[in-house]
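Before going further, learn to read the protein records used in this course. Taken together, the C-alpha cells spell out the fold as the letters spell out the chain. A record is reproduced here so that you can trace the correspondence yourselves:

***
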Amino acid sequence: MLVLLFLLTSLRAQEGYDITITIENVPDKMLYLVGFYGDDAVMFDSAKVKHKRDFYFKSTKRMMPSGIYWLFNKNRDVYMELLVDKDRHFTIKTTMDQLWTQREMHGSDENADFFVYQLRAAHGGDEQDLVAEYVDRSPESLLAKYLKAKYFTIDIDNAYVGMESASPDDSVARQYAWLADHYFDDIDFSDARLLHTPLHIDLYEYFRHIVIAHPDTLKYRIDKFLARTGSCEETRHYYLRRLYQLFNDDTPEGNAVLVHLYDTYCPNGECSWFESPAQARVFKRMVDRKRRLLPGASVPPLEAYDSDGNILKTKDISSDYIVLWLWDPDCDDCVEQTPKLYDFYKKNRDLYNFEVYAISITEDVDRWRAFIESNHLDWQNVSFGKGEPNYDFADYFDVLTTPGIFLIRKDHTIVASQFPLEELQDHLFYEMYKSEK
C-alpha cells in the first residue's frame, strides 16, 4: 500500500538530483518516483510528460536518499526499478514494449549493472550464483548489499553440525540458538541505504517464532540485534521504533521488553529515537505503568469491602500465594472463566497453598452477590460496589478488560501478570519447585 509520507533524510543522502526517463509511446501523462523507508512505500517525486515521452525528475536542493526507487504510473504499475547511490544525474531511454528488456543508459553505471542483473535473472540465471558474483565484485556497493540481503538464504544444515551426540531436547535448543544467531547474517543493518529499499525485514517472524518467548531471552536477542546497527543512528532508531510497535501488545513478555527498551536505549530518560518529544513522553508514562507489574515488583497490600461491609486485606492472608482476580459479573469471559478458576481452587488450594482474592469492579452489587451464591464462591470476595478500596486496583494493575489475573507471593511481590488462566498451575508448580530446591 502506498503511504504518503515525507521521506526521512538518509545520512548518505546527497543534495540535488536530475533524472530523465524517456519512454517512447508512453500512454501516461504523469509518472511517479516511489521510494521506501523500511516497510513503507513513500511518494518521493512526480513528473508530467514532455514531448509525449520525457519525464524530468529534478531538484537542485532536495535530498535524495540512496536506495531503490520504483517508477509508477497512476494505476501503480511498476515501469522500472532505479538504483540511486553514487549517481543522481542520469538518463534512461526505452520504449513501452521493451521496458524490461532493453534500455539505453547514460551517467549511471550502477543502474546499468542493476539492469544487467535483472536481465540475467529473468533469463534463468541462478540467483544465488548471480548475487555471489556481484558481492565478490563489489561487496560494499548498494546493489551487492541489497541483492545479498534479498536473496541469500541460511544454510540450515550448519545448525546440525556437532550435535550428532546431543540429546533430542538439547539438540533442538541448540539448533534454535544457532538459527537465532545467524538469521540476519546476510543483512548489513549498519548501512542506512538498505532502509530505502523494498526489503521486507520480518521482525515478527524472528522475535515471535525463532526466539524463545521468555523476557530474558527476548531482551538478550534484542540487544544482539540492535548491536548489528553499529554506529548507524538512523537504522538503530528505525528498528527501535519497530521493536516498540512489535512488543506494545500488553503481554507479560511485551511489557518486560518495553521496560528494557526504555532503560537501555533512553539514556537519562531521553528517547531520541522517537519522532517527537510527545511520543517519548507517552512511552515513559507507559513504561512507568508496566514496570510496576513486572515479576519481582512489589504490590501495595489491597483492602476492599466484602458483601457484609467488612474490610478484607490481602496482608491478612496467610497462604504462600495469592491470586488476584479482577472481574465483572457482566463480562462474558468472566462468567465463563470464574467457575473454572473456582474449580481449580477447590482442587488445588491446599497443594499449592494459595488463596484467591476476587475483586469485582462492578457497581451492581445484587448481580455480584447472585453470581457468588449461584456458583458457591467461598474464596475472598470483595467489590467496588460496597465502597471505595484503599486504592484504584483496576488503574494500578492496568486492567483495560476483564478478567485480569495476577499471581503474587505472600510478601506481595509479583510472580506473574495477565497470563491465560490455563497457565496458573504451571506458575504455581514452578514456584513450589523453586522453593523446594
